[in-house]
What does this fold into?
Amino acid sequence: MRVLGIETSCDETGIAVFEGGRGLLAQAVYSQTELHARYGGVVPELASRDHIRKLLPLIRQVLAEAELEATSIGGVAYTAGPGLAGALLVGASFGRSLAWAWGVPAIGVHHMEGHLLAPMLEDPAPAFPFVALLVSGGHTQLVEVTAVGVYRVLGESLDDAAGEAFDKTAKILGLSYPGGPALAKLAEQGVADRYRFPRPMVDRPGLDFSFSGLKTHTMNALREELQARDDPEQTRADVARAFEEAVVDTLLIKCRRAVRQVGVRTLVLAGGVSANRRLRARMDEMMQAEGGRAFYPRPHLCTDNGAMIAFAGHQRLAAGQAEPLAFSVRPRWPMQSLPSLDAGR
Ligand code: KG4
Ligand code: ZN
It folds into this structure.
């Protein structure tokens, strides 16, 4: 089955076509970063309006790149949540209408399930069961994954998500939105171990996270060190490095605890922060030492994209699941409430 995927949950319009047995046929992502940069964050109403502008041209572009006629699409998958309500409604109403016009089934995909399954677009793909670390702008979760749709959340962030902590700390460091990748770049210039910031909640049992204290610690350290030192650029880089190392180390300690607790040898990293090079390198080392392996998508499939929605939607449509003509979106949506693939059979 050939599935068109539509992602509009936040500030990226992502379109892709995935075909069972063949893989990803074409994809395109339009990022609204510039539109929101002057506001320092995503403005929901502007995001919705821009998705409306970009959807149709992007779908045409992707179909043309794959040399496909619209009539050859066998199903449509759109992000139905979690995300910004207006942005979700644009993709959902568009996707549902296209499917109706084409006379094919449609499915609303859980955005985090999309992220979680994205590493399966790679070769080799991870095999079930595994532990997944989902690290995006809105979520930080450790999930035990037994099959598609069989998820048990082992732990999650009690306050800021890891990506959110990167973005807010980047702002403190004077970097523009979205700050995660910019902070990572600055950290590469920093001296390792110049500072050691706290690893939040690692000495407590359990698998939850908390990053807001680390953000405050970083802000205070930056202020003090900028006063104490006379090389502001290097000071900023050293502070960025210490912050990144603290986040990566915290995530690593919890991931190791989770794979040991569940008793698996496969760790999957997904979501925007999993594009972070330091995180990937450290997780590779850690999983090798555990006698296992870490899997993650290529960098542009870590951040929001249509390919992961096309792929997750394909799994469900191929198993016979589909939405009725009336659709809904869910700005908040616990992933544990998803049906497994056998649910519709
Ligand atoms: O998954 P994603 O694209 O969108 C959400 O679903 O939230 O994740 C975006 C987040 C942002 O917070 C961004 O700053 C962060 O991922 N991010 C990074 C890197 N690339 C993206 N954080 C750290 N290092 C990176 N290289
Ligand atoms: Zn995302």
Summary: DSSP finds eleven helices and ten strands in the chain. The chain has a mean pLDDT of 96.
